[in-house]
Amino acid sequence: HEAAIVIQLAAYIRNLGYQAVASMNDTSLVIPYAIKAGLGEYGRNQMVLTPDFGPRVRFSKIFTDLPLIADAPRRIGLAAYCGECTKCAEACPPKALPFGPPDLGQGSISTIKGVRKWSADCEKCFGYWAKLRTDCAICMRVCPFNRRYDRWQDRLWRRLALGRWRGLARRWEDRRGKRERLKPKDWWARLTARG
Question: Model pTM?
Answer without folding.
Answer: 0.83
